[in-house]
Amino acid sequence: MQWSEFNPYVAPYVIGCPDPLIEQHARLAAIEFCRRTSCWQKTLDPVVTDGVSNLVELENETGLQIIKIKAVSVDGRSHPVTDSSNGLKLARSGSTQNYCFTQDNKTLHISPLQVSGIAVQVDAVLAPSRTAATLDDVIGAEYLHDIALGAITSLMRLPKQPWTDYNAAGIYSTQFTSRIATVAAKVSRGFMAQKMRSHASYL
């Protein structure tokens, strides 16, 4: 989905706003929406251990960012995921128990050290990056109107523009926040999570 597809849903509320600016704010709203709702979930293509390091690099497709790692399997078996603080403590203590963690959502630390050639698969929450040229078609179709609310809100809050309207921005912000809360609640119950297998290579 092209960011320009948001223009008809945003432009009438911010008369005179240039299309590129609308598209920029649609992208930012999509990032916020995906981050706060976890609506975009994918099982990434497997990556393979090298037998030397505990670290596995999770390289994203251009235009995507990993927001959160939900689950990990190592050699087809579930591997416990812990937070970065606890993971660092375990790593520093030399623990050899089963665990994995990430500090940056780009590199995954897996313990214990795996032999070479072991498949690691990750279920992750995704969002567009700030340089994303497009939005996933499924996410765009499902949440176009919700994301448009976020773009309208942030555009109306830009100072000293012909379309600046702080009062209206507050109204649209409330609607945007309400939709985020609704979608996040449904995703947490497993009703709306978009779990799609990636066909792109991540390593």
What does this structure look like?
The protein is of the alpha+beta class and 203 residues long. It has two domains: 107 residues, no CATH class; 83 residues, no CATH class. It has five helices and nine strands; from the N terminus they run H-H-E-E-E-E-E-H-E-E-E-H-H-E. Strands 1, 2, 4, 5, 8 and 9 form a six-stranded mixed sheet that branches. Strand 6 and strand 7 form a beta hairpin. The two termini are 25 Å apart.
Mean of pLDDT: 92
Q: What is the first-to-last residue Cα distance?
A: 25 Å
User: Helicity range of the residues?
Assistant: 25-40%
Task: Report the β-strand fraction as a percent range.
Answer: 15-25%
The best one-word shape is elongated
How many separate helices? 5
**H/E element string?**
HHEEEEEHEEEHHE
Radius of gyration: 20 Å
The number of E-state strands comes to 9
Q: Helix/strand-derived class?
A: alpha+beta
Q: Can you tag this structure with a few keywords?
A:
single chain; 3-stranded antiparallel β-sheet; 6-stranded mixed β-sheet; disordered C terminus
Task: Give a brief outline of the structure.
37% of the residues lie in helices and 23% in strands. The protein is built from five helices and nine strands. The longest helix has 23 residues, at 166-188.
